[in-house]
User: What shape does this take?
Amino acid sequence: MTGNSAPHGVLGAPVERREGLQKVTGVARYAGEYPLPGRAHAWPVPAAIARGRISAVDASAALALPGVLAVLTPDDAPRLAAPEDAALAVLQGPGVPHRGWCVALAVAESPEAARGAARAVRVTYTAEPHDADLDPGDPDAYEPRETNAGFPGRVEHGDPADAFAAAEVRVDVTYRVPPLHNHPMEPHTSTAHWDGDRLTVYTSSQGGTTVREVLAQLFELPEDHVTVVTEHIGGGFGSKGTPRPDVVLAAMAARRTGRPVTLAYPRRYLPTTVGHRAPTVQRLRLGAGGDGRLTALLHEVTTYTSRVREFVEQAAVPSRVMYATPALLSSHRVVPLDVPSPSWMRAPGEAPGMYALESAVDELAEALGMDPVELRIRNEPEREPESGKPFSSRHLVQCLREGARRFGWAERDPRPGTRREGPLLIGTGVAASTYPAAAVPATATARALPDGTFAVRINATDIGTGARTVLAQIAADALGAPLDRVRTEIGHSDLPSAWLAGGSMGTASWGWAVHDACAELAARLAAHSGPLPADGIATRTDTAGRADADSPYARHAFGAQFAEVAVDTVTGETRVRRLLGIFAAGRILNSRTARSQFTGGMTMGLGMALTEHSTLDRAFGDFTEADLASYHLPAHADVPDVEADWIDEDDPHLNPMGSKGIGEIGIVGTAAALGNAVHHATGIRFRDLPLTPDRILAGLLSEG
Assistant: This one.
C-alpha cells in the first residue's frame, strides 16, 4: 500500500499549514521585521584577503557620514568569552583566517546608511601566503577520528583491498562534487535588544534553544537573561542549524549603541560566512561476482575543512548502510585549507555520498550486463553492514519495485544512447536513497483549559515545514480531541526547551515530547470529575533517557528515485522530463506537508545535479558565484511535475508516532538518478557535477 491510501484520523490527514494565511498575506514576521523603537541597522565589512592580519582600521570617513552611529573594529568591539565554534569569535582580534571574515561592523540609522558606512571603512592588511586548493595528494591531509555528527572517520571489515583485486568484475571510479551553498530565501538576519543585562534577539535560526545557550556563554549571562524568538524562518537547509555571526554581531552592536540593531547579512556575503557543503573527491571501488553479488566495496572520500574549525563532510558513511558485502572500507581524509568554514547542508554526507555510490553501482550494473534495479535488490543486506544490528524497518526493495512499476521501468531499452527524438537523446536512471532516523530529548507541556481547548507549548522551530500543524495533529491524536481545539506555541526560548530543526529529527523529537505530555494529560482528564479549575490541568514531559537511549535496531528511512531526461545534442542542455520518488519513512503524519517535503528535496537534488556549483578561486580564496545571478538554482521551467509517494510503513522501534524524518531524504539519490539517466541517454559517463551544457556538449563532441 502506498501514500495515496486515504488517511484515518487526524494523523496522516492532509491538513493545511496553520500559518499559511499569515505568510501569504504578509502578516508573519521574520527576524528583520520587528519595528522596535529606535531600531538601528548594521552592515558588515568582509576581509579582502585570503589570510593574514589586520594592520589598521580607519573608520573616520565612515563615522563622518550622516546617520552613522558607530563602527565596531577588532580594537574596540565588545569582548566575548571564547566560543566552542570559533567562527563566532568575530571582531575579537586582528587575525584573518579566510576571505570574507568580518573585520568591522558599521551601525547606522538605516540599512542604506550602514551600507555606505561599511564601504567607507578602510582596512589595511598584512597578507600571508594561503592555500585554497583541494588536492587529494596534499601532504597535510589526515584521517579524522570522527566526521560530522560523530561518525567514525574510518570503518573497515574483511580484507577490502585483496577482495577487490580478486573480484571477477571490478569498477574503479572517481566522482567529484563541487562546493554547494544553502541560499535560503530569507538571508541570515537577527535583531538584538538589550534591557540592562538582559538580551532579547529575534533571529532566523533553526533552533532558538541552541542560540540562547551560545549567547549566554559568549556574553557570560545566565541563560534566563537571554530570550530568543524564532517565530518564522524563511528556510535554512542546515545553514541556520547553529548560531552564525549575524546574531553575535547584532548583539554586540546593540550593546555598543544602546539601541535595538538589525543585521541582515547581504546575500553576496553568505557564501563565506554561514557555511557551505564542502567539495568531495570520492573514489569508489566495487568488486562483484558474475552473479552481481558484491564481494568488496571501498568508498574513500577526500574533502577539506577550514583552519577556523574542523568540519568533515561524512560522504562515505552511506556505504556503511546500503549493501551487503563481506569486505568494506569507508574512509575520509580531510585537508585543512584557508577557506571559509564548511558546515551543514541538507543531508550532509548522504547527498554527495549517495551520488557517488549510486552512480558507481550503475556502472557496476553496466559492467555486469545486469538491470540496475535488480542489482540493488540482489545486494540487499539482512542487517546493517556496519553495526550488525537488525533494521527497525527497511523497505527499500518495495520502494524499488513499486517505483519501477509506476515508472514503466520494464519497458526500458537498457542500451545507452539508443532512444532519440530528433536532436534529443532520451534516457532513464534509478538510484536508491537513505537517511538516518533518530531523535533527541525534548520537553513539552500540555494544558487542558475550562473552555474545552488545549494549549501545547514547546520551543520547536518551524523553518517552513509545517511544524505547528503536525505537532497539533500529534497532540489532537493523543488527546482524542478535535484538531481545531488544540493550540500550539513554538518559536520562543521561554517555552520548554527542545532541539533544533535539523538532521531530520525535529518532528520525531518534538512530537515524542508532545505525544507523551498529551497522553498523560488525557489520562489525568479521564480520571478527573467535575469542572476544570480556572487555570486548567497541565502536564509536563521530558524525553531525556528515552529519546537518546541506545537502540538495538539500525533506524533509517529509505527510498528509490527514478528519472527521465532529454539531452540536447546541439546545445548540451539537459531537460528533466520525469522524476518519481517512492519512500519508506515510517508513519506519514501529514500527507500534504510530507509530499511537499519530498518534492522540495527532489527539486534541490535536481539543482545539485544540473545547475548548482561554486568555484573556489585559488588566488583569492573566495567563491566566484556569490549571488543568485551566478549561483544557478533551478527555475520553475527546469522542474517537471515531480511525483513523490510512499510505502505505508509500520515501525514500532522509533518513537510513539512511528515516524521517520523526511526533510532530507528527498535530496538523497536524486542527483545519481539524473546522472545515471544522462549516461543512459548519451552513453557517456560524466563523473563531475553539475551536468551543465558545456560539460555535456564537450563530452558529446569528444565522442563524436
Observations:
- The first strand starts at residue 40 and ends at 46.
- The chain is about 25% helix and 25% strand.
